[in-house]
């Protein structure tokens, strides 16, 4: 579609090779001086441009989980940590990739990715938070930019080549250096050592953030220890342990650092276990029978206040297999116990729509929206229920507000496209689909669709002016995207 620059090609490579900035490297008590904030290499604004470009490419190539309920959960958890982190200079975006491998990674511009497999191994919210806090520290301490600065001091490599290669090198040093040595004879061992130093610093800042945010700091060494033990004799290791091994001294150092903080008892999080159950039911890549077995075994071991999570997961399995008679009593009981819980509201909405009773979903969500009129989970479900009743004009109004407030969510644009198709409004359908192409870095297609919409609109109308203005914006964004070379 367009000529890809060397840096963007490297970014594509990174998406296909699993790029964790792994949470598994432990602290050291005495950390080295790793340098400045890398202002001589990249500005914060440049980092955000690279991050935005990479995120758009990921949307086009990686199995990103576009689940409003899970997105709301990890976004809430992530921003609780960010609010307690030091040196925050960029906004943060948290998202999930459907992959059973234990993994997480950070990249330019405050983007933090979590693999769904991470939820299957993190037993508590604090353990998940320890991974996220570590990745947040990579961003706040600008480790990627600082790695570029270090490489630029050693070799005449271009910033574009480094930007692409180091996205991979931060997690997989050998692979990242392979990309770099295509243009320079840099020193591999030096890059690996520098990355390890970054990991030590990320552990130190991460555990401090964990404590200030009210989580259990012992969760970090506990998670590390369990992973090391689980895969001690494995012939096939998860990518995170291949690129970031867990020798005992790293675990010991992390444990020592955690012991410098006051002990804190943290109650189990129902929302975490609901999210975990949702992943098991829908995103773990296992058959329904295996998911039900996991949930049933989990319910037997769960405390009474955590059992609803396993029941919820079981209801999702039934719902997704169209066993509505089994899903209905579970979801109705859970809703009666907590009518404001958005995990339950989302699932019950889907149930009512599947039962051909979307009006019940609309009434339930209308009530919930009175308390939280801008909540994305409620809004997207409300629009979906209106769409199921062919209340197209009302659905479109809700979705226009939703996409304005949540412009990065492909779900909203997809539903807006569907609603306009049903209403026979081809130009607005084209505009909505153009936004999806733009989110996936397919600029030419996005511009083409908006151009078609403009040609359909009445000459001189406000609609045509809006389409033309958006075309101008997309051209600027495309040129900026292609200029990252």
UniProtKB/TrEMBL annotation:
<keyword id="KW-0732">Signal</keyword>
<dbReference type="Pfam" id="PF14559">
    <property type="entry name" value="TPR_19"/>
</dbReference>
<keyword id="KW-0378">Hydrolase</keyword>
<keyword id="KW-0862">Zinc</keyword>
<dbReference type="InterPro" id="IPR011990">
    <property type="entry name" value="TPR-like_helical_dom_sf"/>
</dbReference>
<feature type="binding site">
    <location>
        <position position="199"/>
    </location>
    <ligand>
        <name>Zn(2+)</name>
    </ligand>
</feature>
<feature type="domain" description="Peptidase M48">
    <location>
        <begin position="70"/>
        <end position="257"/>
    </location>
</feature>
<feature type="binding site">
    <location>
        <position position="138"/>
    </location>
    <ligand>
        <name>Zn(2+)</name>
    </ligand>
</feature>
<dbReference type="Pfam" id="PF01435">
    <property type="entry name" value="Peptidase_M48"/>
</dbReference>
<keyword id="KW-0645">Protease</keyword>
<keyword id="KW-0482">Metalloprotease</keyword>
<feature type="signal peptide">
    <location>
        <begin position="1"/>
        <end position="26"/>
    </location>
</feature>
<keyword id="KW-0574">Periplasm</keyword>
<dbReference type="InterPro" id="IPR051156">
    <property type="entry name" value="Mito/Outer_Membr_Metalloprot"/>
</dbReference>
<keyword id="KW-0479">Metal-binding</keyword>
<feature type="binding site">
    <location>
        <position position="134"/>
    </location>
    <ligand>
        <name>Zn(2+)</name>
    </ligand>
</feature>
<protein>
    <recommendedName>
        <fullName>Putative beta-barrel assembly-enhancing protease</fullName>
        <ecNumber>3.4.-.-</ecNumber>
    </recommendedName>
</protein>
<feature type="active site">
    <location>
        <position position="135"/>
    </location>
</feature>
<dbReference type="InterPro" id="IPR001915">
    <property type="entry name" value="Peptidase_M48"/>
</dbReference>
<comment type="similarity">
    <text>Belongs to the peptidase M48 family. BepA subfamily.</text>
</comment>
<comment type="function">
    <text>Functions as both a chaperone and a metalloprotease. Maintains the integrity of the outer membrane by promoting either the assembly or the elimination of outer membrane proteins, depending on their folding state.</text>
</comment>
<dbReference type="InterPro" id="IPR019734">
    <property type="entry name" value="TPR_rpt"/>
</dbReference>
<feature type="active site" description="Proton donor">
    <location>
        <position position="203"/>
    </location>
</feature>
<dbReference type="InterPro" id="IPR030873">
    <property type="entry name" value="Protease_BepA"/>
</dbReference>
